[in-house]
Amino acid sequence: MKFLLDYQIYYEWLSNGVLSLEIKNHIIIIIKSIEYSLPLLIDPFVQYNQWIKKYYNLEKIHFDNQYRLKQDIVAMSIEQSFLSGSKINIKNCNTLDSLLYPLAQWKAI
């Protein structure tokens, strides 16, 4: 597992509108890679989630594990992003971990 939060990223975010006060006052973890999976951002205060969504113009997926059809749509969207290399923003995904690992392993084969 590689983490990404260094001065280069800090200065890039400063120059692109993220204030240093926000960085100091909020917990943020960016996991650059976990073997074969895509980069992952854990942002409990949703500060950087909003910024990254605007900065990278991401497709947004809301995950709700109460509906099976919704799970299938989310799984297909994630699979397509793995295939195409596109970026997606997945929110409200407390139980999504069991889905991501097999997709990441499948893409690595």
Describe the structure using short key phrases:
alpha+beta, single chain, 109 residues, AAA_9, 2 domains, Dynein heavy chain ATP-binding dynein motor region domain-containing protein, two-stranded parallel sheet, three-stranded antiparallel beta sheet, 5 helices
What do you see in this structure?
Pfam families: AAA_9. It comes from Adineta steineri. The chain is α+β, with helices and mostly antiparallel strands and 109 residues long. The protein has 2 domains: 57 residues, no CATH class; 52 residues, no CATH class. It is 50% helix and 17% strand. It contains 5 helices and 5 strands, in the order E-H-H-E-E-H-E-H-E-H. The strands form 2 sheets. Strands 1-2-3 form a 3-stranded antiparallel beta sheet, with no helix packed on it. Strands 4-5 form a two-stranded parallel sheet. Helix 4 runs parallel beside helix 5. The longest helix is centred in the C-terminal third of the chain and has 17 residues. The protein is elongated and about 40 Å long. About 7% of the residues have low confidence.
Write the layout of secondary structure elements.
Blueprint (H helix, E strand, L loop, with lengths): L1 E2 L3 H9 L4 H6 L3 E5 L6 E3 L4 H10 L2 E4 L5 H17 L3 E4 L5 H12 L1
Parallel strand pairs: 4-5
Antiparallel strand pairs: 1-2, 2-3
Helix pairs in contact: 4-5
